[in-house]
Design the sequence.
């Protein structure tokens, strides 16, 4: 017989319900922690590229070096659709847990390879080839991580707080990048000088990232599988695969349309912004890192607030607000940041940008998960997202630097605006997934 305990307000619940709730929270925490490690590993490349660019791409022009490293950064994104297919299939056929464990193991291999990569002076053309291979492995890993993580967190969260809990995917995603920048700040200010960082210090974060990935692997080994996956498997449904995904063309196009503007905005204010502050605004290396870290901390705090808000008012109002304000204010904001008089002004403007972009980042993964049934959810979220992010997100830094190289930097601002405007059209005509969630439909069927 179950004993009961009283909640505030006099409502009584069985201990078994409390245990299930506790297990759910632990699973969300472990899933989020592993996600943080994956993104820390991935973003160490962007955070430390200012220091290792000359080790792999000798050149007298800093912008040319940054374009070379940005090019490899973009190529790492182009294999993400393949990762979305492979790990989506794995997650839909064999479980979300298996896919999450495999993705973090692959990320570990990529980080370790960068940490041990020889420089151009030592190995010649083999050096950037090894760097490219490592980034391709990391790209495959993240191609699977996003869909599997979004699916797992969305399925583990209860319906009344799904927006709040699912927002922690981007809390940890942004937190991974913030952790990379904090590590850079610590090394810059307390342990290594500029010469040491450029000579060998840039390898440190990749060693740390590989070790953390092994810790995340062990943590994920003990995660429970989601009830949505287990129920779909017991019903004997066909699980995963591109053939089954082709039966959901509207949802696939919706994911691509939502992602294109949101992911471009995200990468402009994260990865590209570090180069923008240094090369265009003219901040020092230390100021650039401090402003980037501060803005990411602010953005990280916004995610659960916006996620909780979506549980009250729905997902669509937040997405429309992001896309509308992004279309109106991208050019003024980037122009103002370009002309910022110092780090504090740049930070304030970036904070304004994050008030807009968080309308997308906080709930985008959940919205995509709510579009698909459990049998195809990891593939449905991961594959079209990976296609859109490889085209628009992964190229953001390279396109921005290209516009700068031809002395037409403002053209990049208008490019970003036009892509967000396309997403606005999609958001305006979409249904609110909070009221038509496939996850809730499955729960009612159970």
Sequence:
């Amino acid at each position: 017989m179950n004993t009961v305990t009283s909640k505030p307000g006099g409502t009584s619940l069985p201990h078994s319900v409390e245990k299930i709730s506790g297990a759910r929270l632990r699973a969300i925490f472990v899933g989020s922690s592993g996600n943080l490690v994956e993104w820390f590993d991935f973003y160490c490349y962007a955070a430390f590229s200012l220091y290792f660019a000359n080790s792999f791409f000798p050149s007298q022009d800093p912008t040319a070096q940054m374009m070379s490293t940005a090019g490899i950064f973009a190529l790492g994104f182009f294999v993400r659709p393949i990762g979305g297919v492979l790990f989506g299939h794995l997650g839909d056929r064999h479980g979300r847990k298996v896919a999450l464990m495999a993705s973090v193991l692959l990320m570990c291999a990529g980080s370790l390879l960068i940490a041990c990569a020889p420089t151009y002076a030592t190995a010649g053309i083999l050096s950037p080839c090894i760097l490219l291979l490592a980034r391709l492995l990391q790209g495959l890993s993240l191609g699977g991580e996003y869909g599997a993580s979004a699916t797992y967190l969305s399925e583990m969260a209860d319906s009344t707080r799904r927006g709040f809990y699912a927002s922690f995917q981007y809390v940890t995603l942004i937190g991974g990048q913030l952790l990379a920048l904090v590590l850079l700040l610590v090394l810059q200010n307390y342990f290594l000088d500029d010469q040491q960082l450029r000579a060998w210090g840039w390898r440190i974060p990749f060693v740390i990232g590989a070790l953390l990935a092994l810790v995340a692997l062990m943590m994920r080994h003990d995660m429970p599988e989601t009830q949505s996956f287990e129920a779909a498997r017991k019903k004997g449904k066909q699980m995963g695969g591109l053939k089954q995904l082709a039966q959901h063309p509207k949802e696939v196009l919706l994911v691509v349309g939502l992602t294109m503007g949101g992911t471009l905005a995200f990468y402009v204010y994260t990865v590209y912004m570090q180069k923008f502050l240094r090369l265009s605004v003219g901040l020092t290396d230390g100021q650039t890192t401090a402003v980037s870290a501060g803005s990411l901390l602010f953005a990280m705090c916004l995610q659960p607030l916006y996620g909780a808000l979506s549980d009250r008012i729905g997902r669509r109002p937040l997405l429309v607000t992001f896309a509308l304000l992004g279309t109106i204010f991208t050019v003024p904001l980037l122009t103002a940041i370009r002309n910022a008089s110092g780090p504090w002004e740049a930070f304030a403007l970036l904070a304004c940008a994050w008030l807009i972009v968080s309308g997308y980042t906080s709930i985008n993964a959940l919205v995509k998960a709510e579009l698909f049934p459990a049998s195809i959810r990891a593939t449905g979220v991961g594959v079209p997202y990976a296609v859109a992010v490889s085209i628009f997100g992964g190229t953001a830094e390279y396109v921005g630097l290209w516009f700068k190289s031809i002395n037409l930097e403002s053209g990049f601002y208008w490019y970003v605006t036009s892509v967000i405007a396309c997403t606005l059209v999609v958001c305006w005509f979409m249904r609110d997934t909070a009221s038509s969630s496939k996850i809730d439909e499955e729960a009612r069927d159970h």
